[in-house]
Amino acid sequence: MKRRFSVICRLSLLLTLLSALILLALMMAVDDSLKTYLRESNRADQDKLTEVARRQLEHDAQLLLRSLSDSLRVDIYNQDFSAIGDALERLGKFRNLDYIYVYDHNGSILHDGSADVPLYGEPITSHTPPQLLTGLVEGRFWSGEHLHLNSRVEASGEAFAAITAGFDFTSAFNEIKAHREDMISAEYSLFQNVRKAVLLTFMILLPICMLSAIWITRGMLKPLQVLTNRSSRYAEGERNLTFELHRPDEFGRLGTALERMRQALEESHDQVRQMAYEDTVTNLPNRRWFQNRLSEMMHRSASLDGTFAVLFIDLDHFKQVNDTAGHERGDQLLREVSKRLQTCVQANRLQRGPAAELARLGGDEFVVLLPAIQSAEDAAETARALLGSLAPPFLLYGQYFSISCSIGITLYPDDGISASEILKHADVAMYSAKQHGRNQFAFFQPQMTEEIREHLEIQQGIKEAIDKDYLYLDYQPLYSMESGQMIGAEALLRWRHPIKGLLSPARFIPIIEESDLIEDVTRWVANRAARDLKKILDLREHFSVAINISGAALHQLEMCEYICELKQHLALPDKTLSIEITETSMISHLDSCEAVLRRWKRAGIDIWIDDFGTGYSSLAYLNSLSIDGLKIDQSFVHNLIDGHSRPLIDAMIALADSLSIGTVAEGIETDRQHEELKAMGVEYGQGFGLARPMRIDALMQLLETEENVRP
Amino acid sequence: MSRLVAHRRAAILFFFVLCIVLPVNGVVLPATAGAEPLVLAQVSDRPKKDFKQLLPMARYMADRLQAYGFNGAQVQLYDSAEALIGAVRQGEVHWISETPYTSARLMQETASTPLAKKWKNGQQQYQTMIFTLKRREILSLQDLVGQRIAFEHPDSFSSYFLPRRILENAGLSLVELERPEDPVPEGQVGYLFSRNEKNNALWVDKEIVAAGTLNNGDWLNPDRVMPEMHERFHVIHRSAFYPRAFELATPALSPEAALALREELLALSQENHAGLLARYEQTEQFSPLELQDLNFLQELTDTGGRAP
């Protein structure tokens, strides 16, 4: 950006320019006035001078002539030509006379001023201008610069002669003209001097004006400069200042307003900072704060060559608390947990000195930053203390909650050199701790990354798969051993990954089951299967579709309700929708799943035990939970011919018979197996030997074919 | 040579005159009557000019006559012969320079003594001329009857006393006119005073009067009679020649001083005193009185103002 002049500089220049313009205008006005004055005064002077001179000359001439008349009265009376002539001659010596005549009452010239009086006796009128009144009267007449005068000569008050004269005042008027020119030239030089003086004054005043302008502007705008300076400093981050100027004028008010703005900004800033960096549930620092802190730490440790540890804490099975006790209690538990962790961290800090810091990353994730540790053992010790702090159960609303946590530990700089890396590796380590049975801590190991990565990929990918319809269902038909007729099908979840192709259910389903995502996946499967079932029911009245419900989803009442509502919404007849639960998952959630199973049962949904015979089940529940049937695990069917599983299968059939519940043999691959099992009294069978899992279209086609074949 | 003879003769005559005159008046003045200025007087109608002309000579003589009790010079000018006579009678004047007629009256009326003839304006003697305009065709004195003639002023010898006597001797009757317009009584000649020589000539030239009178000196002076006028004028009468002017001693001047003054005046010469003489009314020189001069003066007074 081009450097601009400061406001003071510009204002000063502007004021100076303005002053200069005013001075210039003033100077021009003075100059013009002087010129006009010079011109006018010259003309007026000249006119006045001429007028005065004319009057004076006239007066003098009259006086002269009158006095001549008086002095020559006797001589004229006596016709004393010599005396008259001498007088006229004397007069002519110091007056420029055009003529001078003495004439009598007849108008005859008595004397013409010359020695021999040649005009004696001639009529006066032929020698004077016609405009001049002649006769024995007073008269005067100007012709240019010549004055013609007529003056009476009286004796005893009566005129008996007159003197008439023509005065030539050319030289007098020339002198006036010359004088005027002198005056003009003198005044012009005076005018030039005045002009010079004005110019000089202008030149003196201009810098004075400039300095005054600078001085005044600087004085006036000083507070503005102060405010600008403070604003700049404030903008650069200086906080220890005030805009208050303690002045009564506009600047003072501006300062006060700025100060109010600053205070409001500070408050707002504090609020934002609080909102931005503090977790609202626990009032602990939040993820953003932690990331900043971590970056800061790394920056500091890098320069100090220091070591620090990050402990990534994830509460075990916290989701279940939320699901069963509600979010309010979940939040309360989080607050209690955070208090214990904080107390523990602070106690730890007191022992060690350097400040350990606790933050909540979100959900049930916490993190502890241990600055300046001596060795990994320091971190392990803290982790143990943290685990121990959560060991006593929490009493909330009269109810005890037991919660543990898994901790992943990373050390800087060994386990990463960036903040995100450190945090991610801590997460991985935590995950590993969870994998190894929870309620423990684990240091990050590089090989952890790979196994965890797969988990993470699947957990992250499944959402995308749901959204983008990468999931689909295969149906494995279920046949009646007796009639050989297809009576139902088991819905099997398939995931066609856009890059990795078809993923094995055995691989991704356990990983999904570990996460909260199992809920979404279950909903998707239930929804899709129910709708497919609706279509199938249009084709065949008696048909059932079974969906597998993971143990993780089993205790969720929402899920239970969802399936019930789905059945009702699609108006599926009773006993068309079945739910298969593995024996293992049912046993591990036996208490919590009981209500769910009963709810489904009431809704007309059949419940089958999947993979029966592989778990360590108490047979008691088979009776109490109103199970509709057992699905004999395919391992038993596989060992039927060449193995020793026939007695077990017999026992299972006998058990089912005794409980009046159905049996399904899974994994029938050969006709022989089929025949044997039929003979043993298994009601239904499924397996590659009967039909491979197929898409809904293929199933429908198969059903149609079967319908056509049936008589 | 003849001049020296004349000188001596005049001295004898002067002495003679003194011897006669002084006892008659019975006035004997002391030779030195204390320190006083020498007073020179004249009748003048141009006092300023005449004062300047007379003063140097008065001073010169006062200086020369210190021995007679004079410690300075004064010039007194009077506007008429009567005034001058009055002053002389009061003893206010020591010395007078005048034309013949006034000189004669002074001798007659104040017992003043003529000392020497003064060649005033370079003239030892002069004559009076009576002139007219040629075109008026006035050819003789007799033609002036019923006409007006201009004299200079009543104290003028050459332009009043003398011409008047000439006209009267020619049998003409003169009457003074108040104004040029005044009518001339039947059979008489009207006269007017022109006041000066110049007017005299101009009046004739402008036909205010028929004739004028001027002495030959003025006639030839171009300032008074312009040369062109000569052609227009015609002189109808010329008088005899008379002495131009006289220096007189009043009774206030002691006979010794008068004698000394006479000697001093006669001693002035063009060789030694040209400047002084020139300033003294253009005087050429002073010459001693002759008997005929005394007779002439006597004759003037005898007629009692009547023209001889």
UniProtKB/TrEMBL annotation, chain A:
What InterPro entries does its record include?
A: Biofilm_reg_signaling (IPR052155), EAL_dom (IPR001633), EAL_sf (IPR035919), GGDEF_dom (IPR000160), HAMP_dom (IPR003660), Nucleotide_cyclase (IPR029787), Rev_trsase/Diguanyl_cyclase (IPR043128)
Which residue range or ranges hold the EAL domain?
455-707
The protein's name is Diguanylate cyclase/phosphodiesterase
Q: Which Pfam families match?
A: EAL, GGDEF, HAMP
Q: Which residues form the GGDEF domain?
A: 306-446
GO biological process per UniProt? signal transduction
Top-level division of the source organism's lineage: Bacteria
Protein's organism: Marinobacterium mangrovicola
The HAMP domain is annotated at 218-270
Show the GO cellular component annotation of the record. membrane
The record lists the lineage as: Bacteria, Pseudomonadati, Pseudomonadota, Gammaproteobacteria, Oceanospirillales
NCBIfam families given for it? GGDEF (TIGR00254)
UniProtKB/TrEMBL annotation, chain B:
Source species, domain of life:
Bacteria
Q: Name one Pfam family in it.
A: Phosphonate-bd
Q: What is this protein called?
A: ABC-type phosphate/phosphonate transport system substrate-binding protein
Q: What organism does the UniProt record list as the source?
A: Marinobacterium mangrovicola
